[in-house]
Amino acid sequence: MTYNILISDPLSEDGIFPLRQAEGFNIVVDTSLTPEQLAEKIVDFDALLVRSQTQVTREIIEKGTNLKIIGRAGVGVDNIDLPAATERGIIVVNAPDGNTNSAAEHTIAMLMSLARNIPQAFHSLKNKKWDRKAFIGVEVKNKTLGVVGFGRIGQEVAARAKGQRMNVIAYDPFLTAEKAEKLGVQFGSVEDVIKAADFITVHTPLLKETRHLINKEAFEKMKDGVQIVNCARGGIIDEDALYDAIVSGKVAGAALDVFEEEPFVDHRLLTLPQVFATPHLGASTVEAQEIVAIDVSYDVVSFLNGGVVKNPVNLPSVSKDVLAKIEPYFNFVEKLGSFLSDLADGVPEEVNITYSGELSNIDVRPLSRNALKGLLKSKLGESVNDVNAKFLADRIGIVVNELKTTKSKGFTSLITVEVKTATETRKVAGTLLNGLGARILRVDDFIVDVVPDGHLLFIRHKDQPGAIGRVGTLLATEGVNIAAMQVGRSEIGGDAIMMLSIDKHVEKSGIEQLKGLADISDATPIDL
């Protein structure tokens, strides 16, 4: 059988060599198609390979009646309608690892240029000035590099920095002291890292939790003369706060490759002599462009030949009968994972997902992946999806167990997700109630009845008169309205919990005030 492959964006010949080499593949390269032309042409093809130029819309996917796989030669899939592809049973693959080396090398190049004022010195020479004294730099040897975000790229940067005989201290939500020791770096919190570092580089995804992670308060905690590198995502660093920190002398310099708004050509940061920037070049190497194309090409060859793919980014199709039974639980079980992501303290080491009742008799692996997706997404960002969640959990070192029992404790089906960290075990259980929708029915050992939606507040306290009133009064002063409340206790006067549905997120200052109230031992905001 011959498969027709359409490549609609420029890819290097070396990158598509696996396709050229494979037998039974007819490859058509046409990078000049309009959306209308692509929609008309796609009907004849089994696979479509793109970069970021081609917009693979629902219309194009629906026209592709023979389409089986779409490959994105790059990290993201923003230009592909994933829901439309999934509905049609078309698998989408990408190449998330292809730019790791290039991004790490660019980071080190920026760091070294920053330390030695190389761009500024060259600019001076271009202006016919010979001024050696103005550009005295610093050695990086024996300096401390703080790495915020210690995934693939962060670890590659650390390895190169150690080659320059730098000391490295790192933070990552999935990094433990034991893992750090094995990798030869010091482990710390975000605050530990920014306080200790002479140079700081960030390598986190851009999330609600990481937006402006490096802000005015963070700069105030840093050493005088610290230098900043960002080759990860625009928005992790508050650019206005960075400007103020440089002007005040707190920050000696900054090297930036990514920005909150791009193109980045008219920001006051670029007026500062201590700042230099590049136009989002982290993955812009010949090798990276080839690697991402090679990775996607191999996945296309493997899939069309009946094999497995390395980097799927959407949910493979399941039988209609199974899908009909589990699809209503997709969003719910993801929220259970997200709930525990906010609730559990520490790095997850083990996740146990138990299916009780009717769900115990069918293939629930897609649900387990969704639970992991919810657990990991708040830390790893949109790169986590239904398919790669298990792979990412394995890579992080999280043990995942899927358990089944016919005992449903009075419910048709019940799902329990348990997370174990080095310091505690937390669990949440719930179900879908006919006519009432999703409900969380148990948190740890406490029985509740909570709709898993919007802004929630989980409070641990002693079962004492006035505790609930004090919480309500404080939230009122913070302008937070309580929509619903559930209270559970182990025994009269013993440990108890409150689960509040509230109208808006409680800020950090409000949480600290709640923790300071009499009889309140802990308070955790949860956003679903």
UniProtKB/TrEMBL annotation:
Pfam families the UniProt entry points to: 2-Hacid_dh, 2-Hacid_dh_C, ACT, PGDH_inter
Reaction it catalyzes: (R)-2-hydroxyglutarate + NAD(+) = 2-oxoglutarate + NADH + H(+); (2R)-3-phosphoglycerate + NAD(+) = 3-phosphooxypyruvate + NADH + H(+)
Protein's pathway: Amino-acid biosynthesis; L-serine biosynthesis; L-serine from 3-phospho-D-glycerate: step 1/3
Show where the ACT domain sits.
456-528
The record's GO molecular-function terms, alphabetically, read: NAD binding; phosphoglycerate dehydrogenase activity
Tell me which UniProt keywords the record has, alphabetically.
Amino-acid biosynthesis, NAD, Oxidoreductase, Serine biosynthesis
* Signal peptide interval: none
Q: So what EC number does this one have?
A: 1.1.1.95
Q: Which GO terms describe its biological process?
A: L-serine biosynthetic process
The UniProt entry's sequence similarity note says: Belongs to the D-isomer specific 2-hydroxyacid dehydrogenase family.
Q: What does this protein do?
A: Catalyzes the reversible oxidation of 3-phospho-D-glycerate to 3-phosphonooxypyruvate, the first step of the phosphorylated L-serine biosynthesis pathway. Also catalyzes the reversible oxidation of 2-hydroxyglutarate to 2-oxoglutarate.
Name the UniProt record assigns to this protein: D-3-phosphoglycerate dehydrogenase
Organism, by scientific name, is Psychrobacillus glaciei
